[in-house]
Design a protein that fits this description.
CATH class: Alpha Beta
Number of helices: 5
Strand content: 25-35%
Order of helices and strands: HHEEEEHEEEEHH
Distance between the termini: 33 Å
Radius of gyration: 16 Å
Shape: globular
CATH topology: Nucleoside Triphosphate Pyrophosphohydrolase
Structural class: alpha+beta
CATH architecture: Alpha-Beta Complex
């Protein structure tokens, strides 16, 4: 995959959510302007990849309590120069859950969600933005998930309770998209 592949994914992504549409436009502009957009040392931001992990029945979502940020998130992380952002999302999911990649099933090659969020300054670098490209994956929710040292805890959370763990607008949007997957008649 090359930067043009990400641009193609972004051009083909459709969303009914206005704030996400704005993120897509900003991400397109950012990727077009920065050839090294996958480099985690690019300031003021860089592309990251993550996965919205759902149970096969779409009733539960996998969330990790991130050690460094002290918040609940979906698996994901830096591209570290890898232009194949789908591979990044799948790799990060496998690493952060501690599961073999064979347990992580990609639902679609299409982008599931796009978000841009700020990361506070730290010893790692200045305040910057993550242009997070998210994919929908499925995992059996009866597997024991060992995790790794990046998280305090990993939980399967019932869809209606996700906001108790993370009430960010982008998380709400992914919950709503998951609800619509479960009941396509409700799609506007």
């Amino acid at each position: 995959m090359h930067r043009r592949d990400l641009l193609s994914l972004l051009h083909h992504h459709r969303t009914p959510f206005m704030e996400e549409a704005a993120h897509v436009n900003r991400a397109l502009d950012f990727v077009e302007r920065h050839e090294n957009c996958f480099d985690c040392d690019l300031w003021p931001g860089h592309v990251t990849g993550s996965a919205w992990v759902v149970s096969p029945d779409r009733e539960r979502v996998l969330l990790l309590h991130h050690r460094k940020h002290d918040q609940w998130f979906q698996p994901g992380g830096h591209a570290d120069g890898d232009a194949d952002i789908l591979r990044v999302a799948l790799r990060e999911t496998s690493e952060e859950t501690g599961l073999d990649p064979s347990h992580v099933r990609l639902v679609s090659n299409a982008v599931f969600d796009v978000d841009i969020h700020s990361i506070l300054a730290s010893e790692r670098g200045p305040r910057h933005e993550h242009f997070d490209i998210r994919f929908l994956v499925e995992m059996d929710d009866d597997l024991e998930i060992p995790g790794n040292d990046e998280s305090h805890e990993i939980l399967w959370v019932p869809l209606p309770q996700v906001s108790r763990f993370n009430n960010n607008l982008s998380t709400h949007r992914m919950v709503e998209k998951t609800r619509r997957l479960r009941n396509p008649a409700n799609v506007a």
